[in-house]
Design a protein that fits this description.
Blueprint: H1 2-21, H2 29-55, H3 71-81, H4 87-99, H5 101-118, H6 124-145, H7 153-177, E1 191-192, E2 195-196, H8 201-230
Antiparallel strand pairs: 1-2
Helix pairs in contact: 1-5, 1-6, 2-3, 2-6, 4-6, 4-7, 5-6, 7-8
Amino acid sequence: MIAYSVLLVAVLTAYVSGCIFLKSGNENKTVVNAVFAVTTFLLYVLGVIRMYIVVGPYDWNFLESLPTTNVSPFTFCLALVSLILPKKIRAYVFTLISLLSLAMAAAGVIICLSYVFRDYSFHLTIAGDIIAHFSLSLFGIYLLRSGQIKTSVFDMIVSGGIIVCVALVMLILNLIFGTSFFGLSLYGDHNIYHFVVTKSGVLSALIYFSGLITLLFAGRFYLLLFEKKEK
């Protein structure tokens, strides 16, 4: 409990400091982008490797280690892939990352608090997963401040639509194969991220997508705070 409490205070302090002092100047934006994206991705990969070592090859669930497990690992990988995308497409992906800044920071806090209250033993790879969420959130803020994202309402809707469309594809795959990609299970208890919200698969899907879209809108208002601060 103490270790994760200290970690939470440390990452929140670093995150708030980053939000305040992280600015764009004469730095090489390509290099900074790569540092954020590669660091976040490596922290995710280390978590997957640790899970394989702990569980073992016979009990390891390959599907639960894929980036399609939920929105976070998918975005971790998307951030890395974005570095080699065509400029126009990359701008939309960068905008999506920025829109998810608030969601990533909130997820980092929730994950850390869950380990605090469960009094779970401390593992560096779990800490790495928490740090990865805050790292991607800061990356999104940096992209905004360095002028690398599209800030019009239309462009943000298009960018947010990327993750919504991917989630729809995952929904279809879940219906066909009985999987639980993107944290949405439509069989058995119809859980969302392992929480049973309703026994109805249709309602679970509606709640899931409503929550996802709400997070994107909240992310837009979160970015507005930084836009006003810059002005």
